[in-house]
Write the structure tokens for this entry.
Amino acid sequence: MMGSSNKEAVDASLQIHKQIKVVFVMGGPGSGKGTQCSKIVQEFGYTHLSAGDLLRDEVKSGSENGAMIHDLMNEGKLVASDVIVRLIVKAIQETDNDKFLLDGFPRNEDNLKAFENLTKIEPDFVLYLDCPEEEMIKRVLSRNQGREDDNIETIRKRFRVFEESTLPLVDYYASKGKLRRVDAARSVEEVFESVRAIFSSTEVRPRPDRHCNCFSFLRSFCR
Ligand SMILES: Nc1ncnc2c1ncn2[C@@H]1O[C@H](COP(=O)(O)OP(=O)(O)O)[C@@H](O)[C@H]1O
Ligand SMILES: Nc1ccn([C@@H]2O[C@H](COP(=O)(O)OP(=O)(O)O)[C@@H](O)[C@H]2O)c(=O)n1
Ligand SMILES: [Mg+2]
């Protein structure tokens, strides 16, 4: 067992010591999170961190937690928050970028609390890919990525977890005015049109008062 002072020292070393911008990308299994994130990366230069991919890499790496993570994922259950949060924070620390898409995170309130406690980071906004369940099931069953959890029995369990644990967080962000909801039941390109509009409106533009300052200087010169 790790002593508490030792654990705090480890947590301190995991803090993020740089200014970063984070967008949470939420949606049920098969709603298109990974697909849309790839397009956002290409057009807006974010780094894409998929919580599921980080966990799958951890299983492949043969880490001591690997077997436990593998079993939970195959049951469609959520992995302990400190495990996924540590993987995310480590990936952020190791990446030389200042803007990140967290795909598939947070999945429940406990995920969010653990992330906030460790990083003190608030997302800029939350992108929610809203898709009917029948469409998501169709997509997951035909995505052929060799994922052990893409079978109908586990998919049904993942949907229940999404409804019971993740949807309340979606509502929470809606109530805070931070939710950007997109109809994800359309084609990839149509969905991305909406996504692009959301990200374009958050990009920093030149401040208009720079021109004002220039004009006011000229005015004072001519006076
Ligand atoms: N808008 C869409 N229309 C049809 N198929 C889609 C769409 N978006 C994604 N897909 C396909 O559906 C499957 C699931 O998409 P994915 O991005 O892996 O979803 P998620 O990461 O939310 O589980 C993939 O095979 C992907 O190619
Ligand atoms: N925050 C998270 C994200 C994923 N996971 C696990 O990883 C699995 C796959 O997540 P994923 O994001 O790759 O799944 P999709 O929504 O992309 O289909 C989930 O069903 C959970 O078992 C988790 O435990 N905690
Ligand atoms: Mg995914």
